[in-house]
């Protein structure tokens, strides 16, 4: 399927879902990254009222500038788009101050505490998106791709994983980049190293995952074809690494365990 065909199919799917379910507004969080930029543009193409929200929390200035630039790019081209900028730094700082003493340990620094507060940023953004969406009879549109959401579980549970629909959930990262090119997105967004933007430093996704998205895609494809059996040859190492990441995060992708009583 060509990028143009994907764009057409996904745009029609979003509009059909909204119409069928009597949804008035599409709400998307924009981060300055390729995934949210593509999804917000696909929503804009439906011509339905679309609200895009950037939510900096001690944000890396480059990412925040990219979010602002993309918001302006959208509103200049699509009259159905409203761009909101909600700085949540003070809200997060208050949360951190209140909860922090109960999360601290004697270990310094505590990686688990740092991860907990990084994920709390995503959950605060999710709450913000839903407050706006419900106020406008809208839905929160997810921005996760197939590799992140259904391959290695690289998302925050009840954070950026808390959405109503997932338009690019069946698209690999390379598909998203290709759609970004086709849509004419800002080159600096297409070329920027992917990052979740949840940390005070400038770490990118590859730093956290230990693998590039292209290697993850190849490994995911091979793993699905072989039904999880490790191949021989040069791809064995990256498939094994992919499967280890997937196993660690499987709890995010599997249904919530329920204690059956009968």
What is the structure about, briefly put?
This protein is an alpha/beta fold and 262 residues long. The chain has helices at 3-20, 34-45, 61-77, 89-103, 111-135, 146-152, 173-183, 187-191, 205-209, 213-225, 236-253; strands at residues 25-29, 50-54, 81-85, 138-140.
Task: Describe this entry's structure for a reader.
The radius of gyration is 19 Å and the shape is globular. A 4-stranded parallel sheet has the order 3-2-1-4, sandwiched between helices. It is built from 11 helices and 4 strands, in the order αβαβαβααβαααααα. The model has no long low-confidence stretch (mean pLDDT 93). It has 2 domains: 3-192, HUPs (Rossmann fold, 3-Layer(aba) Sandwich), CATH 3.40.50.620; 201-253, no CATH class. Helix 3 (61-77) links the parallel strand 2 (50-54) and strand 3 (81-85). The longest helix is centred in the middle third of the chain and has 25 residues, at 111-135. By secondary structure, it is an alpha/beta fold. Helices cover 56% and strands 7% of the residues.
Quote the beta fraction. Answer: 5-15%
| Biggest β-sheet strands, sense, barrel | 4 strands, parallel
Q: If strands are numbered along the chain, what order do they take across the biggest sheet?
A: 3-2-1-4
Question: What is the CATH topology of the largest domain?
Answer: Rossmann fold
Q: What radius of gyration results from the CA coordinates?
A: 19 Å
Spell out the CATH superfamily of the largest domain. Answer: HUPs
Helix segment tally? 11
Query: Which structural class matches the secondary elements?
Result: alpha/beta
Return the CATH architecture of the largest domain.
3-Layer(aba) Sandwich
> Low-confidence runs (pLDDT<50, min 5 residues)?
none
**Amino- and carboxy-terminal Cα gap:** 46 Å
Form type: globular
How many structural domains can be distinguished in the coordinates? 2
Which bin fits the share of residues in helices?
Answer: 55-70%
CATH class of the largest domain: Alpha Beta
